[in-house]
Amino acid sequence: STVEELGELLFHDSILSRENKISCASCHKPEFAFADNIALSFGVDSIKGERNTPSAMNLSARNFYFHDGRSETLEDQAGGPMENPKEMDIPLSVIVRKLNKHSQYRTFFIKIFGTTANKQNLVEALAAYERSLETSDSAFDYYMNDKDTTLFTESAKRGQRIFNVKGRCFDCHFGPDFTGDEFKNIGLFNGKELNDSGRYKITRDPDDVGAFKVPGLRNIAITKPYMHNGMFNTLKEVIDYYN
């Protein structure tokens, strides 16, 4: 077995949470492009999270992870939800002990890494699996690579023109995954009911108040609801907000 296959096993195994209650896939659901289909996901004790679960796909080219960009590597990101008391609520050291008591996992780690499970190779395996979740075969990809131009409809072409020019969506959503990996305040922070200050919590830079990471738009049709707090349930609502 490969490191990616080990990561896939771990991603879908509730052994990574307190009392084996939830797995990474409980919130990053494969059928929704590894996002969740509710605004805020539930942790081990059915506590609601604070932000919408983003897709775990198309992350290999990203520079920042989480809506506030607090992790700069996938390995660092992978450890976050496990130790988060509102999510999987378990120290990595406890997971490592559980894995090394599990004869199958113990064998896998020794075979792949040459050593038993530890904090580093645990997150390495998860990150390797996440890096394998790339999308490159959409109608848009076929159209751009001149493979099949029939799948990309006239309506989609009109949308592309608006996206790139009049709508100026392309100013923030560009590149292969439609994100510039920047942090933007799009007016969702008002200090009252919408009081998540986003990137500011990490940098403490006043310019970052209310700014969040610009998400990639791959598989966007199935990753609703949208925004860092899941406040919009349809793409039409998102576009109406920008209008």
Structure description:
The chain is built from 10 helices and 2 strands. Helix 1 crosses helix 6 (119-131) and helix 3 (74-83) packs across helix 6 (119-131). The longest helix has 13 residues, at 119-131. With 243 residues, it is mostly helical.
Describe the structure concisely for a colleague.
About 35% of the residues lie in helices and about 0% in strands. It contains ten helices and two strands; from the N terminus they run ααααααααβαβα.
Shape: globular
* DSSP strand tally: 2
Order of helices and strands: HHHHHHHHEHEH
Distance between the termini: 50 Å
Structural class: mainly alpha
Helical residues, percent: 25-40%
- Radius of gyration over C-alpha positions, nearest whole angstrom: 19 Å
Described by strand count, sense and barrel closure, the largest sheet is: 2 strands, antiparallel
Number of H/I helices: 10
List segments where confidence is low: pLDDT < 50 over at least 5 consecutive residues.
none
Strand order in space, largest sheet: 1-2
Mean pLDDT: 96
State which percent range the strand residues make up: under 5%
How do the helices and strands line up, and which of them pair or pack?
Layout: H1 3-11, H2 24-27, H3 74-83, H4 92-101, H5 103-113, H6 119-131, H7 139-144, H8 154-166, E1 183-184, H9 200-203, E2 212-213, H10 235-242
Antiparallel strand pairs: 1-2
Helix pairs in contact: 1-6, 3-6
